[in-house]
Amino acid sequence: MTFDLVNEVLKFLRGRPSETFSANEIAEYIYQSFPEYIEERTKKSAQRNNSRDLTTKAGWISQLSAEIGAKNPSFRRHPQIDIIEVRPKKYFFTNKKSENSINQPLSATREFSEKLSFFLKAFGDRREGPFSYDELLTNAMNELKKWLESAQAVSSRSNLKVKISVGAGNWTKTPWIAIMDSEVTNTTQKGIYVVFLVAEDLSTTYLTLNRGMTELSKTLGDASAIEEMRRIAATVRRQIEDISEEGFTLDEGIDLKSQTAAARKYEAGTIAHLALPSDDLPDDETIEHYLDVVLRAYEKSKHIDTSVPAEALDAGNADQTVAEFSMEDALDELFLERGDIERYLDIWRDKKNLILTGAPGVGKSFIALRLAYALIGFKDDRKVQAVQFHQSYSYEDFVQGYRPNGNQGFERKNGAFYEFRDRALRDLNGTYVFIIDEINRGNLLSIPE
Q: Phi and psi (nearest 5°) for 434?
């Protein structure tokens, strides 16, 4: 018989009608009362990487407590289960819940799960072939993006931007759907943002609060960047602990089922996460609730100092090693002739700038990065900076400007180009490349020429 968590919680609370219980207390009961269920899941967990240790009682109580929190939307709709909104949340049995507060599960819509499932299917089919524009996949991405943009949790908050990626030049192993606050970041390469991360086998989508690792890796190297990320994540987690009461896990223990460097960085950058199995996606009300929970945590993170200490920057720069990147490497990774690559590089060296044009999705960004490596002679991400222009991208984003500091005031913050310029000035003998993606979309009245 399938274990039904909501039903078992109801039975537990109904048998104790005058008492209230925390998620941990209910989890303790489930752990003690269903040894066969616990044993079966323990065996399965040993076959894959779990975010919690399910070989100990403490690990199981933590896991079950998180699963109870993840069911809060269902509990709130249930006619006989109510929640006292304190810390920790208290659950109790009731016969007096207002009918007006009950949204019966039968009326729940599932547009999000349908659109996400369609996107995953389209991507899974398309990635078997060469990277190119595909109308079906593009439509699936647009429909999913529109749903998220119109969701109350997103549309009610200003400055939020939704972006979906399936790769650039090549299909990514782990597609993602990011929700970024323009006051924090306009790219998944840096800053904190909310993102749906899809496992390589498409079995699970994780809704996460994440910290971009690419910029940290450029300045610190991968190993030091991961350590710095862990320091930042620990700082943020202390301020958003209540997110765990809604089913989110406060650690980096997601498993994207991938061995790529990008996947490892996504995993290391995770601050908090919630697993959404592809065969059990939530209804729209539940996903709206999850979005509101994680976006509230995101808002809190905006007021936390996540800057990298100067000593960490110095230590990271001293420890980095980089691999050479030759013309042969460029030929191996790009579908271009040697003469074309040499001509592009000659123009770049002489004119100091190069513009690539072409239809969307043909891999211009991918080519630009490999040409940059070839120009430098090394695959050195410390010496390459990429930004993406859009209509709301401003001088403050690009160079410098005043931003809210979270204390009803403002402080001056450097933009992407300003910080990259300072990095280049500290290495006058080096070659540095600044890449502007979607340059034609920028508003020239807002961004300096």
A: -110, 120
Name residue 81's beta-bridge partners. Answer: 93
The model carries a pTM of 0.61
The rounded distance, in Å, linking the Cα atoms of 231 and 414 is 22
Query: H-type helices in 199-283, by residue range?
Result: 214-220, 222-239, 261-268
Q: Give the residue among 385, 366, 388, 398 at the shortest CA–CA distance from 430.
A: 385
Question: What residue ranges define each of the domains in the chain, with the CATH number in brackets?
Answer: 5-106 (1.10.10), 108-301 (3.30.920), 319-441 (no CATH)
Evaluated on CA atoms 90, 195, 192, 409, the torsion sign reads: negative
d(CA 171, CA 445): 35
Angle separating helix axes 222-239 and 310-319, nearest 10 degrees: 150
Model confidence over 159-182: pLDDT tens digits?
A: 899 999 998 778 999 999 999 998
Element (H, E) at 403: strand 400-404
DSSP string for residues in 210-222? EE--HHHHHHH-H
